[in-house]
Automatic annotation (TrEMBL):
Domain Peptidase M48, chain residue ranges per copy: 60-242
Lineage: Bacteria, Pseudomonadati, Pseudomonadota, Gammaproteobacteria, Alteromonadales
Pfam families found in the cross-reference section: Peptidase_M48
InterPro entries reported in the protein's UniProt record: Mito/Outer_Membr_Metalloprot, Peptidase_M48
Cofactor(s) in the UniProt record: Zn(2+)
Cofactor note: Binds 1 zinc ion per subunit.
PROSITE patterns hit by this protein: PROKAR_LIPOPROTEIN
Name under which the protein is recorded: M48 family metallopeptidase
Family under the similarity heading: Belongs to the peptidase M48 family.
Length: 266
Protein backbone atom coordinates (compact mmCIF):
# COMPACT_ATOMS: atom_id res chain seq x y z
CA UNK A 1 0.00 0.00 0.00
CA UNK A 2 2.85 2.37 0.81
CA UNK A 3 4.45 1.77 -2.60
CA UNK A 4 1.09 2.27 -4.31
CA UNK A 5 0.55 5.57 -2.47
CA UNK A 6 4.00 6.76 -3.47
CA UNK A 7 3.39 5.80 -7.08
CA UNK A 8 0.03 7.56 -7.20
CA UNK A 9 1.43 10.73 -5.64
CA UNK A 10 4.36 10.75 -8.03
CA UNK A 11 2.09 10.21 -11.04
CA UNK A 12 -0.23 13.01 -9.93
CA UNK A 13 2.67 15.41 -9.62
CA UNK A 14 4.19 14.39 -12.94
CA UNK A 15 0.84 15.05 -14.56
CA UNK A 16 1.13 18.68 -13.52
CA UNK A 17 4.81 19.15 -14.28
CA UNK A 18 6.17 21.77 -16.63
CA UNK A 19 9.19 21.20 -18.88
CA UNK A 20 10.96 24.43 -19.63
CA UNK A 21 14.40 25.84 -20.37
CA UNK A 22 16.74 27.58 -17.99
CA UNK A 23 18.29 30.97 -18.92
CA UNK A 24 21.24 29.16 -20.54
CA UNK A 25 19.08 26.64 -22.43
CA UNK A 26 19.18 23.63 -20.10
CA UNK A 27 16.02 21.54 -19.97
CA UNK A 28 14.22 21.73 -16.60
CA UNK A 29 11.29 19.78 -15.22
CA UNK A 30 9.39 21.82 -12.62
CA UNK A 31 6.65 20.25 -10.51
CA UNK A 32 5.79 23.24 -8.34
CA UNK A 33 4.17 26.55 -9.14
CA UNK A 34 5.81 29.91 -8.52
CA UNK A 35 3.29 30.51 -5.73
CA UNK A 36 4.27 27.27 -3.98
CA UNK A 37 7.98 28.07 -4.25
CA UNK A 38 7.37 31.58 -2.95
CA UNK A 39 5.49 30.10 0.01
CA UNK A 40 8.49 27.90 0.80
CA UNK A 41 10.84 30.87 0.45
CA UNK A 42 8.71 33.07 2.71
CA UNK A 43 8.45 30.42 5.43
CA UNK A 44 12.15 29.57 5.25
CA UNK A 45 13.23 33.19 5.56
CA UNK A 46 10.98 33.80 8.55
CA UNK A 47 12.49 30.75 10.22
CA UNK A 48 16.02 31.95 9.43
CA UNK A 49 15.30 35.29 11.08
CA UNK A 50 14.20 33.48 14.23
CA UNK A 51 17.19 31.15 14.32
CA UNK A 52 20.00 33.50 13.32
CA UNK A 53 21.28 36.67 14.97
CA UNK A 54 20.49 39.74 12.85
CA UNK A 55 23.07 42.51 12.58
CA UNK A 56 22.13 45.83 14.16
CA UNK A 57 24.96 47.71 12.41
CA UNK A 58 23.15 50.48 10.53
CA UNK A 59 26.10 51.32 8.28
CA UNK A 60 26.67 47.70 7.32
CA UNK A 61 22.99 47.17 6.60
CA UNK A 62 22.84 50.31 4.45
CA UNK A 63 25.85 49.13 2.44
CA UNK A 64 24.49 45.63 1.79
CA UNK A 65 21.05 46.98 0.95
CA UNK A 66 22.57 49.46 -1.50
CA UNK A 67 24.34 46.71 -3.46
CA UNK A 68 21.32 44.38 -3.28
CA UNK A 69 18.93 47.06 -4.52
CA UNK A 70 21.12 47.82 -7.52
CA UNK A 71 21.50 44.14 -8.42
CA UNK A 72 17.79 43.28 -8.07
CA UNK A 73 16.88 46.55 -9.81
CA UNK A 74 18.57 45.21 -12.95
CA UNK A 75 16.10 42.32 -13.19
CA UNK A 76 13.67 42.43 -16.09
CA UNK A 77 9.92 42.38 -15.59
CA UNK A 78 7.75 43.92 -12.86
CA UNK A 79 9.73 45.32 -9.95
CA UNK A 80 9.73 43.11 -6.86
CA UNK A 81 10.63 44.50 -3.47
CA UNK A 82 13.31 42.22 -2.08
CA UNK A 83 13.75 41.79 1.67
CA UNK A 84 17.44 41.96 2.60
CA UNK A 85 18.72 40.85 6.00
CA UNK A 86 22.31 40.88 7.27
CA UNK A 87 23.00 38.02 9.68
CA UNK A 88 25.68 38.55 12.32
CA UNK A 89 27.74 35.41 11.79
CA UNK A 90 31.32 34.56 10.79
CA UNK A 91 30.02 32.32 8.00
CA UNK A 92 31.33 33.27 4.58
CA UNK A 93 27.96 32.86 2.92
CA UNK A 94 24.88 34.44 1.37
CA UNK A 95 21.66 33.16 -0.19
CA UNK A 96 18.55 34.28 -2.05
CA UNK A 97 15.13 32.63 -1.83
CA UNK A 98 11.97 32.57 -3.95
CA UNK A 99 9.53 35.22 -2.84
CA UNK A 100 12.15 37.96 -2.86
CA UNK A 101 14.49 37.34 0.07
CA UNK A 102 18.25 37.83 0.42
CA UNK A 103 20.41 36.86 3.39
CA UNK A 104 24.02 37.96 3.80
CA UNK A 105 26.34 36.83 6.58
CA UNK A 106 28.78 39.38 7.97
CA UNK A 107 31.63 36.90 7.45
CA UNK A 108 31.21 37.27 3.71
CA UNK A 109 32.12 40.94 3.92
CA UNK A 110 35.61 40.02 5.11
CA UNK A 111 36.15 38.19 1.81
CA UNK A 112 34.11 40.33 -0.59
CA UNK A 113 36.28 43.42 -0.19
CA UNK A 114 34.24 46.01 -2.13
CA UNK A 115 30.88 46.69 -3.76
CA UNK A 116 31.80 44.92 -7.00
CA UNK A 117 32.83 41.71 -5.24
CA UNK A 118 29.71 41.72 -3.07
CA UNK A 119 27.63 42.24 -6.22
CA UNK A 120 29.23 39.12 -7.73
CA UNK A 121 27.89 37.02 -4.85
CA UNK A 122 24.46 38.63 -4.76
CA UNK A 123 24.11 38.37 -8.53
CA UNK A 124 24.98 34.69 -8.30
CA UNK A 125 22.46 34.00 -5.53
CA UNK A 126 19.65 35.96 -7.19
CA UNK A 127 20.41 34.07 -10.41
CA UNK A 128 19.57 30.81 -8.61
CA UNK A 129 16.08 32.20 -7.96
CA UNK A 130 15.74 33.64 -11.45
CA UNK A 131 16.66 30.29 -13.00
CA UNK A 132 14.19 28.30 -10.83
CA UNK A 133 16.98 26.19 -9.35
CA UNK A 134 15.14 25.59 -6.05
CA UNK A 135 12.07 24.36 -7.93
CA UNK A 136 14.28 22.15 -10.07
CA UNK A 137 15.95 20.58 -7.04
CA UNK A 138 12.74 19.93 -5.11
CA UNK A 139 11.13 18.52 -8.26
CA UNK A 140 14.09 16.24 -8.90
CA UNK A 141 13.91 14.93 -5.34
CA UNK A 142 10.20 14.26 -5.73
CA UNK A 143 10.66 12.37 -8.98
CA UNK A 144 13.32 10.13 -7.43
CA UNK A 145 11.08 9.37 -4.46
CA UNK A 146 13.13 11.28 -1.86
CA UNK A 147 10.96 14.35 -1.55
CA UNK A 148 7.52 12.99 -0.61
CA UNK A 149 7.25 14.93 2.64
CA UNK A 150 8.36 18.07 0.86
CA UNK A 151 5.81 17.50 -1.86
CA UNK A 152 2.96 16.91 0.60
CA UNK A 153 3.86 20.08 2.45
CA UNK A 154 4.38 22.23 -0.62
CA UNK A 155 1.04 21.16 -2.07
CA UNK A 156 -0.76 22.45 0.98
CA UNK A 157 -1.17 19.28 3.03
CA UNK A 158 0.48 20.90 6.03
CA UNK A 159 -0.16 24.61 5.50
CA UNK A 160 2.80 26.51 6.89
CA UNK A 161 3.63 23.92 9.53
CA UNK A 162 6.90 21.95 9.51
CA UNK A 163 8.93 24.99 8.55
CA UNK A 164 12.16 23.02 8.77
CA UNK A 165 10.99 21.14 5.70
CA UNK A 166 10.58 24.39 3.82
CA UNK A 167 14.13 25.29 4.75
CA UNK A 168 15.44 21.89 3.78
CA UNK A 169 13.74 22.12 0.40
CA UNK A 170 15.74 25.26 -0.29
CA UNK A 171 19.02 23.90 1.02
CA UNK A 172 18.93 25.76 4.35
CA UNK A 173 18.09 23.02 6.86
CA UNK A 174 21.19 20.90 7.36
CA UNK A 175 19.89 19.50 10.63
CA UNK A 176 16.81 18.00 8.97
CA UNK A 177 18.61 15.62 6.68
CA UNK A 178 16.78 16.44 3.43
CA UNK A 179 19.45 18.69 1.96
CA UNK A 180 19.04 19.47 -1.73
CA UNK A 181 22.23 21.31 -2.71
CA UNK A 182 22.50 22.92 -6.10
CA UNK A 183 24.40 20.85 -8.63
CA UNK A 184 27.51 22.02 -10.44
CA UNK A 185 25.58 22.69 -13.65
CA UNK A 186 23.29 25.01 -11.71
CA UNK A 187 26.22 26.69 -9.96
CA UNK A 188 27.95 27.35 -13.27
CA UNK A 189 24.71 28.67 -14.71
CA UNK A 190 24.29 31.01 -11.73
CA UNK A 191 27.83 32.30 -12.37
CA UNK A 192 26.92 33.21 -15.96
CA UNK A 193 23.51 34.73 -15.22
CA UNK A 194 24.74 36.43 -12.06
CA UNK A 195 27.74 38.06 -13.70
CA UNK A 196 25.51 39.48 -16.44
CA UNK A 197 23.06 40.76 -13.85
CA UNK A 198 25.69 42.55 -11.77
CA UNK A 199 27.27 44.07 -14.89
CA UNK A 200 23.88 45.42 -15.97
CA UNK A 201 23.58 46.93 -12.49
CA UNK A 202 26.83 48.85 -13.01
CA UNK A 203 29.29 46.65 -11.12
CA UNK A 204 32.62 45.62 -12.63
CA UNK A 205 32.46 42.01 -13.94
CA UNK A 206 36.24 41.70 -13.62
CA UNK A 207 35.63 41.48 -9.89
CA UNK A 208 34.21 37.97 -10.36
CA UNK A 209 37.53 36.19 -10.71
CA UNK A 210 39.09 38.28 -7.93
CA UNK A 211 36.23 37.52 -5.55
CA UNK A 212 36.51 33.77 -6.10
CA UNK A 213 40.28 33.92 -5.70
CA UNK A 214 39.58 35.43 -2.29
CA UNK A 215 37.01 32.71 -1.65
CA UNK A 216 39.50 30.00 -2.55
CA UNK A 217 41.88 31.33 0.09
CA UNK A 218 39.20 31.55 2.79
CA UNK A 219 38.91 28.54 5.07
CA UNK A 220 41.91 26.68 3.64
CA UNK A 221 41.72 23.97 1.00
CA UNK A 222 38.05 23.16 1.58
CA UNK A 223 36.93 26.78 1.40
CA UNK A 224 33.86 28.40 2.98
CA UNK A 225 30.28 27.09 3.00
CA UNK A 226 29.45 29.02 -0.15
CA UNK A 227 31.83 26.79 -2.12
CA UNK A 228 30.67 23.42 -0.84
CA UNK A 229 28.96 22.23 -4.03
CA UNK A 230 30.53 24.63 -6.49
CA UNK A 231 32.94 23.82 -9.32
CA UNK A 232 36.63 23.72 -8.45
CA UNK A 233 38.32 27.02 -7.69
CA UNK A 234 40.44 26.94 -10.84
CA UNK A 235 37.48 26.03 -13.06
CA UNK A 236 35.32 28.81 -11.64
CA UNK A 237 38.03 31.47 -11.79
CA UNK A 238 38.95 30.54 -15.35
CA UNK A 239 35.31 30.65 -16.38
CA UNK A 240 34.72 34.06 -14.81
CA UNK A 241 37.86 35.45 -16.40
CA UNK A 242 36.64 34.38 -19.83
CA UNK A 243 33.14 35.74 -19.17
CA UNK A 244 34.23 39.19 -18.00
CA UNK A 245 35.10 40.63 -21.45
CA UNK A 246 31.70 39.52 -22.77
CA UNK A 247 29.97 41.38 -19.95
CA UNK A 248 32.15 44.46 -20.27
CA UNK A 249 29.81 46.28 -22.75
CA UNK A 250 26.94 45.92 -20.26
CA UNK A 251 29.11 47.38 -17.53
CA UNK A 252 30.29 50.21 -19.77
CA UNK A 253 26.69 51.10 -20.66
CA UNK A 254 25.71 51.18 -16.99
CA UNK A 255 28.86 53.14 -16.15
CA UNK A 256 27.86 55.80 -18.67
CA UNK A 257 24.67 56.31 -16.68
CA UNK A 258 26.54 56.65 -13.42
CA UNK A 259 28.22 54.03 -11.26
CA UNK A 260 26.57 52.78 -8.08
CA UNK A 261 28.25 54.22 -5.01
CA UNK A 262 27.77 51.68 -2.27
CA UNK A 263 30.35 52.08 0.46
CA UNK A 264 30.44 51.48 4.17
CA UNK A 265 30.47 54.92 5.77
CA UNK A 266 33.52 55.46 7.96
Amino acid sequence: MKRLAISLLTLSLLGGCVTTQSPTGRSQTLLFSAAEMNQMGDASFEEMKKQQKISKDAKLNAYVNCVAERVTGALEGPALRWEVVVFDSPQVNAFALPGGHIGVYTGLLKVANNQDQLAVVLGHEVAHVLANHSNEQVSRAQMTGTGLKLADMALGAGGVANKDLYMAALGLGAQVGYILPYGRAQESEADIVGLELMARAGFDPRAGAILWQNMAKAGGAQGPELLSTHPSHDTRISGLQSLAPKMQPLYDAAKAKGLPKCQIAK
